[in-house]
Amino acid sequence: MASFLRQTYGQRIQNHTNPAAKLLLETMERKKSNLAVSVDVTKSKDFLAIIDAVGPFVCLTHVDIIEDFDQSLVQQLQDLSIKHDFVIFEDRKFADIGNTVALQYSSGVHKIANWSHITNAHPVPGPSIISGLSSVGLPLGRGLLLLSEMSTKGALAVGSYTQEAVRMARAHRDFVIGFIAQRTMEGIGMQENTVNKDDFLILTPGVGLDAKGDAMGQQYRTPRQVILESGCDVIIVGRGIYGKDPGLVDEIRAQAKRYMEAGWEAYQDRVSAQA
Amino acid sequence: MASFLRQTYGQRIQNHTNPAAKLLLETMERKKSNLAVSVDVTKSKDFLAIIDAVGPFVCLTHVDIIEDFDQSLVQQLQDLSIKHDFVIFEDRKFADIGNTVALQYSSGVHKIANWSHITNAHPVPGPSIISGLSSVGLPLGRGLLLLSEMSTKGALAVGSYTQEAVRMARAHRDFVIGFIAQRTMEGIGMQENTVNKDDFLILTPGVGLDAKGDAMGQQYRTPRQVILESGCDVIIVGRGIYGKDPGLVDEIRAQAKRYMEAGWEAYQDRVSAQA
């Protein structure tokens, strides 16, 4: 079975047709970074301060927790994405029927499809969730990640659930660009002796250099474990980088640098490893 | 195995400690209605017009699709809930890790926990999603429904997923009051010869008197099928009642009456049926 895990991010651009997937890989290659920062704060001011401090290559947003959200915040986020050259990924975790997710994605206060290059969804409603989101996002050049696994204790995204998620993704390659998962999905849900022609991007939460977990069921692994051992492509780090005080700009920048270097080193070891 | 399916809604109040579950059952008994109306529209004006026309016993909201949402809309919704005596259920389908859902539930633009008696969540992240939501909702007297099944084609909430969802609910009876499901969950995930002491409320989407489905994977059953044959407690109806034009108040009211009568008749047949 062919593996995409030995290819560089730059080489993998050609494996994709979706504009958001290409943009993601180009940005990773250009910035030499596979670190995505998840900014889970409730105030616009903190949100923008953290993003400006980190200047990540991917910015994961959770605009649904921001209390003073308005469209001017979107404009400021977009300005920062140009200043720092990063991709925007609203971590919305859509999980409803096709008709509803299409409205949640395009409409509401947040109008996510208008400004977020990438978003994600749970496969639990079946393929209709992809059709619903795709009807809105594909014409705008957006990309979707499916949550085929979760990093929390007792998660139900395992076994046949994960396999079905991967099969759903393979059937929608134009819009589904990869997964939120704990490991590479190569070979998952495939019959033996089938040629693997689907290069999916794996973005992985639950990455920490220090903590082992939180009080609410989140469990952590190191960048080396997820990139080198498990074949993931992007490490997602949140509170591990910005801690509890969004005002500590130098500390946040130093932590981001530490994660960025750890993630990139693990990736370099992976692509240069003997097959 | 004892079944709660022969008890009236009024009799079942005593089986619950959660204030939202009691409120729901009291309201059903008082209004003689097991119809929940799901109002999936993007404009405040339409949203309020439909709710005022129907005067449902439960109002399912999707505030995340309303473009002109603000806190005054919440006030108007609450005023209507007093005028028409209904329970508010924001159909948010939370699906993230504990720390994030706690913020999504309490914060953001919508501040759902402040005004929605009931909300729902996918069990896919594991028990931490219940702890996260409970930390916000339980002190406010709110209740949670878990999505243990879905009505869409190819849904992955089946088999062991459904069983685990029910086990998670049994372990959190103070906050989890029931399920979004296609049938009663009595006996699901239980060992044989165990006494069933958990009276869960089953709210069921995908109910239609006319249509068989939509283009985006939703599939429909009749009120009689879901209440009498499958042991569900509440029928959730959306577009089947308000159609495409929120201005047709008389038509909406007539459709709501039709569903309400069909739902109540099926329930009466169930409680009066020979065991």
Could you characterize what this model shows?
The structure is a homodimer. Chain A is α/β, with parallel strands linked by helices and about 280 residues long. Chain A has a single domain (about 5-275), classed as Alpha-Beta Barrel (TIM Barrel), CATH 3.20.20.70. The first copy, chain A, contains ten helices and eight strands. In chain A, strand 3, helix 5 and strand 4 (about 120) form a beta-alpha-beta unit. Chain A is globular, with a radius of gyration of 18 Å. The mean pLDDT of chain A is about 95. The interface between A and B is large, with 55 and 55 residues.
Features:
homodimer, 275 residues, TIM Barrel, eight-stranded parallel β-barrel, 39% helix
What topology does this entry show?
2 copies of one chain form a homodimer.
Chain A: H1 9-12, H2 19-31, E1 35-39, H3 44-54, E2 58-61, H4 71-84, E3 87-94, H5 98-106, E4 118-121, H6 128-137, E5 143-147, H7 160-170, E6 176-180, E7 201-204, H8 223-229, E8 234-237, H9 239-242, H10 249-272
Helix pairs in contact in A: 3-4, 3-10, 5-6, 8-10
Summarize this, please?
With 275 residues, chain A is of the alpha/beta class.
